[in-house]
Amino acid sequence: MRKRFCKWFWPITLAALAIALAACDTVETGTPTAATEGDAVLTVPTRTLGPIVSFTPRFTATPIPSATYTPSLTPVSSDTPVPPTLTPTLTLTPTPTVSGAVRSTENVNLREGPGTDYPIVFSVPPGTDLGVVGIQTDADGREWYKVAYEDEDGEIQYLWVYARLIETDFKEIVGYVTPAPTTPQPTIGGPTPTPVPNRVNILAYCHQKGVRPPTPTTDDNVFIEWSWFVAQPRLMEPHLQNAHYEVRLDGELLEDWQRYATDTKLESGVWIVYWYYPVGKLNAGEHTVTFHLTWDEPITDGYAQFGPGTAHPSDDGDCTFTVVAAE
């Protein structure tokens, strides 16, 4: 029985194996068996499943690299400085600051106080802008503006300038009202009087000028007047630096005359400075003014030479006037 089984099974098995391999490309794995044909022993090979062959694509798909974004060049900003925020400096002033400008044709003096007796701090050219912060009247009734002036170092200086030399709307803006005058009791060479009514000017050399003096009353406030003029404004300073005025009323010297000078101004084609010395109310009667002018060094007024070694070493004059009793 076993011998016959082997002879019949082998051909069938081989055929079935061939069909299976052709159909699915696999072989079954079985246990090796042995068959005997005559004296020969047939060994049936063990059937091992062949590996399943996967079909490798003929062309390997190489992935297309994704586009790498290249950033555009960012422009480098130029070093533009950021302007600083300006912090205004607040300056307390007694009145609102109003704009003003120098309207003289020559330099104008800025002084430490409201009067010609105060020292000159700066001399500014025509058209200089100033801030006007106040106003005051001096002993001769002249108005002075307190002004804010920026110097070369950027510092604000508060000084005084003769009001007639400044163009400004200060009075209109602040509603300025001229103060009512008071009646002082000045004495010759005494304190500077404040503005007063009934003012009378007596020219110190009225005799030489052929001027008839006024006749003040005992209620009038008398001022002794004199002046000096030059052809050009630059000639005034040498005169002021070298001049010595000896003006006397009834023999009494009028001291500190320098403080009663006006600023230099253009008048009738010449540059002139006036002095108005307050002597106050005088007693009824005749009074005499004597005038004597000398110089330390020679000077010129643009028309003639004056001082030591010149044809005019001194200048002299006088004036006699009468004071009458007030009614």
Description:
By secondary structure, the protein is mainly beta. The protein folds into three domains: 2-44, no CATH class; 98-174, SH3 type barrels; 199-323, Immunoglobulin-like. Helices cover 12% and strands 35% of the residues. It contains four helices and 19 strands. The chain has helices spanning 2-24, 170-174, 206-209, 236-242, and strands spanning 33-37, 40-44, 98-102, 108-111, 120-124, 129-137, 143-150, 156-162, 166-168, 199-203, 221-230, 243-249, 252-253, 265-267, 270-280, 285-295, 299-300, 305-306, 314-323. The strands form six sheets. The protein has a five-stranded antiparallel sheet. It has a four-stranded mixed sheet with strand order 10-11-15-14, with no helix packed on it. The protein has a four-stranded antiparallel sheet with strand order 13-12-16-19. Strand 10, helix 3 and strand 11 (221-230) form a beta-alpha-beta unit. The radius of gyration is 60 Å and the shape is globular. The N and C termini lie far apart (189 Å). 21% of the residues are buried.
